[in-house]
Design brief:
Elements lengths: L9 E8 L10 E15 L5 E2 L2 H9 L8 H9 L2 E5 L9 H13 L7 H16 L5 H8 L3 E3 L5 E3 L9 E5 L6 H11 L3 H23 L4 H14 L6 H13 L2 E4 L8 E6 L2 H7 L5 E3 L2
Antiparallel strand pairs: 1-2, 2-4, 2-5, 3-4, 5-6, 7-9, 7-10, 8-9
Helix pairs in contact: 1-2, 3-4, 3-5, 7-8, 8-9
Length: 289
């Protein structure tokens, strides 16, 4: 698809389905979350990120073929800053938004193909994580849902994904993605776990297809939530296990990982808000609507 100029605000992202199984070639569906975003600002304050080290990282990775580093460095010296409401270590793509902003403003190329753009953004975001899929910055750059199929081909979806009834539950702790990816890789050594994950990958793929058509059913969400509660327990903070199980038992709501898990936010499909408030009034939910 043709890439249009992105607005000046760069949203956070949510992986609706495909966390972890994407490493096995399963599809991924990610959407922009406009509740949190980053934008350029003139003058640092409490909400701006220090960018001096970013310049050094761009230089060390020889990304001058992609980024106008001298201009970027000059603007930073003249007071440019990046103001962001995206919490770091929450699975919301804070580095992806910054990557999208840098490329949007200082990029030397303007790819018109989503697959090529994903690769370009992955190269840039790799300065933060060592390795990047490119999905996070692509969502932030395009402000569109992104679907990656089982062949790795990227499609930017122009039709919005239905998010009515989906909320974010804050675990009140940050986490490192790399830590939990390592846990997952070690668990895959177990043949039983690996076999179950293949089944889960199929379920995830079916959920994505249904979601794209606006036909995602409650039973499918329940199966995903139950699977993760059984097989991804290390990725669920202890403070959320009771809530998670309560949702499974009652059917009033279902929780699932939002990215790597371990901390940050978790996705909740809420079917009975009054029930949830009655039992978990102290928990604050953020609607995606």
């Amino acid at each position: 698809m043709d890439i249009v100029n992105s607005p000046k605000k760069f949203p956070s992202k949510l992986i609706l389905f495909g966390e972890y199984v994407a490493t096995m070639g399963a599809p991924v569906l990610a959407i922009p979350c406009h509740k949190f975003y980053g934008e350029w600002d003139q003058g640092a304050n409490d909400n701006t990120q220090p960018l001096d080290t970013v310049i050094d990282m761009l230089k060390s990775q020889a990304l001058d073929d992609l980024i106008d580093i001298p201009q970027f460095e000059s603007d930073l010296l003249n007071g440019l800053a990046f103001r962001s409401s995206i919490p770091i270590g929450y699975g919301l793509g804070s580095s992806g938004a910054l990557t999208a902003a840098i490329f949007h403003t200082y990029g030397k190329t303007r790819d018109t193909d989503a697959d090529e753009l994903k690769k370009t953004l992955a190269r840039i975001e790799s300065i933060f994580h060592g390795k990047s899929s490119g999905i996070d910055p692509l969502v932030s750059y395009l402000h569109l849902p992104i679907y990656v199929n089982d062949q790795g081909s990227v499609q930017a979806l122009t039709q919005p994904i239905e998010t009515t009834g989906i909320y974010l539950l804050d675990s009140l702790k940050s986490r490192s993605t790399a830590t939990y990816v390592e846990i997952f890789q070690k668990k895959l050594i177990n043949p039983t776990f690996a076999s179950e994950i293949k089944k889960f990958a199929t379920l995830t793929s079916e959920a994505i297809d249904a979601c794209k058509k606006g036909e995602l059913e409650k039973d499918m969400i329940a199966k995903i939530s139950a699977f993760q509660f059984e097989f991804f327990r290390e990725m669920i903070p202890e403070s959320l296990t009771e809530i998670w199980k309560h949702g499974l038992d009652s059917g009033a709501f279902y929780l699932k990982l939002c990215g790597a898990g371990g901390g940050g936010v978790f996705l909740m499909w809420l079917f009975d808000k009054a029930y949830f408030k009655k039992h978990f009034a102290e928990q604050k939910l953020l609607s995606l609507d």
